[in-house]
Write a structure and sequence with these properties.
Elements (H helix, E strand, L loop, with lengths): L5 E3 L7 E3 L8 E11 L5 H16 L5 E9 L3 E8 L2 H8 L4 H7 L4 E12 L7 H6 L5
Antiparallel strand pairs: 1-2, 2-4, 3-5, 3-6, 4-5
Length: 138
């Protein structure tokens, strides 16, 4: 069994789970996502789908450096992650249960937004304020 990931507090939301230590002078891909559910009645479905994706992340997919989540219950949710490359992120996205989530979640969301950017290893993990600023109105 793999070692438990190291945790870094980001000052809001769940801790950043570190799976791979970034190299300070290397560039990585950072991603923030935002979900606004259509109604609180969609929360059970969202929770089931999210837990499945979190189990997938816990399996340490190739290229994942770390991730975190935060929320403003009951309808607003954000994820934050860092990846070694765009290819690694695309592979994760196209693998179930995440691939299945991309079909199911649009049915229960009124808004979905995301932003990708390049970040140096020394800048990881991103802060929540920085990440949330990248999605205006979220």
């Amino acid at each position: 069994m793999a070692d438990k990931p190291r945790e870094i507090e980001l000052g809001g939301g769940a801790p950043w789970l570190v799976f791979v230590e970034p190299e300070p002078d290397r560039e990585y891909l950072a991603l923030v996502t935002y979900f606004l559910l259509k109604s609180v009645w969609r929360l059970p479905k969202f929770t089931r789908v999210t837990l499945a994706v979190r189990r997938q992340l816990a399996e340490r997919p190739p290229g994942l450096l770390g991730y975190s989540m935060t929320a403003k219950p009951p309808r607003r949710f954000w994820t934050l992650s860092a990846w070694e490359s765009e290819k690694d992120l695309r592979t994760f996205i196209r693998t179930s249960p995440h691939a299945k989530a991309m079909v199911e979640l649009p049915r229960i969301m009124s808004v979905f937004a995301y932003q990708r950017w390049q970040a140096m290893g020394r800048e990881l993990p991103p802060t929540w304020p920085d990440a949330r600023r990248r999605i205006p109105g979220a």
